[in-house]
Amino acid sequence: MADQLLPIPQVPDGLREAAQRGILIPFIGAGVSRLAGCPSWVEFADAALKWLIEDGKFTYSQLDQIRHLPPRVKLSLARTLAAQKGTTINFRTLLHPKARQEHKKGCQLYNSLFALGKTFVTTNYDEWLDERIPEPTPAAIPSTQLADTQPVSSIRVIHKVEEIIPALLSESNTVIHLHGSILDQAGMVLTTHDYVRHYANDRLSSDPQRENRILTFLDFLFKNKTVLFIGYGLDELEILEYVILKAGRPPGTPGRQPRHYILQGFFSHEEALLGSLRSYYLSECDIQLIPFRRDDKDWDQLLDVLEDFARRIPASAPLVLQTAQEMEDLLNG
């Protein structure tokens, strides 16, 4: 049955068609990078504060007093305190506690993604999408030599707001870091103030100095491409809502086929939650939920799902007519 919760879900017809037409854009969240060894939002915020503790700029007593605050508030405090104390938090070390080449699960996961898409959008700051690292092969090779023996393919990385334009969505081997990257720590969207500024409402202002390039980009993305959200869970709904609703997406129309999709895992006993989220995404965001069962492997099940999707709907180049239509939309917009 269509609503049956399976370990490997069926590929919706609309998603398959988008892959064949070359308009499928994987949109990657923190749930993906967590499987590759990166911290959760809570862990990332606490690690930033502990970095300050080790640097002698904060104390465990102070950390205990704010332990219940949301991650974004903690990150705001960490960034403010670091600036006041004249120190710098090394976010790269916090996000990548060990070399990516040594993380077999991460390499497997992201290689499936690179087979599934040619152009990526992400709200993550980490570098997993910035290079294509082959999966480590079983061999008696010391880990220190992996970087020299395994070929790495570079990806075009876009992370500065002024560089984020709709035309990038038709370029292969490109990743757009929507909230910045650890390549430029000052430009990372971390705090509440950062989010408010990043998603300001005057995106279609006639004044180029006032236009919000992020929302113009998102408006084009949701209008002309099919988005597959991967790695977004309940703890990231707020971020997802910023991305979708701030882009001006209209509520779903009953009976209309949704253009976008979100891949999420559920346990068998979460049937009620699954149904509620399916209705929410469809009515509020025009997104179809693709659920998979995580009873046996928990979130590691996502590795099998992406590997299967990469085989069934591998990335294709955009059709010439599709690209021409998008260029016309850009010129007329």
Overview of the molecule:
The chain has 333 residues and is α/β, with parallel strands linked by helices. It has two domains: 13-38 and 100-332; 41-94, no CATH class. 42% of the residues lie in helices and 12% in strands. The chain has 14 helices and nine strands. The protein has helices at residues 13-21, 30-35, 41-54, 60-65, 71-85, 91-95, 104-116, 146-149, 192-198, 213-224, 237-245, 271-285, 301-312, 320-332, and strands at 24-28, 119-122, 131-132, 153-154, 156-158, 174-177, 226-230, 260-266, 287-293. It has a seven-stranded parallel beta sheet. A two-stranded antiparallel sheet has the order 3-4. Helix 3 (41-54) runs parallel beside helix 5 and helix 7 (104-116) packs parallel to helix 13 (301-312). The longest helix has 15 residues, at 71-85. It is globular, with a radius of gyration of 20 Å. It starts with 12 loop residues before the first helix and ends with a helix.
Instruction: Please give the alpha-carbon distance between the first and last residues.
Output: 42 Å
Helix content: 40-55%
Query: How many helices in DSSP terms?
Result: 14
Helix-strand pattern, N to C?
HEHHHHHHEEHEEEHHEHEHEHH
Number of domains: 2
Write down the overall mean pLDDT.
86
Helix/strand/pairing class, anyone? alpha/beta
Quickly describe the structure.
By secondary structure, this protein is an alpha/beta fold.
Provide tags for this entry.
single chain; 333 residues; alpha/beta; 2 domains; two-stranded antiparallel ribbon; 14 helices; 9 strands; globular
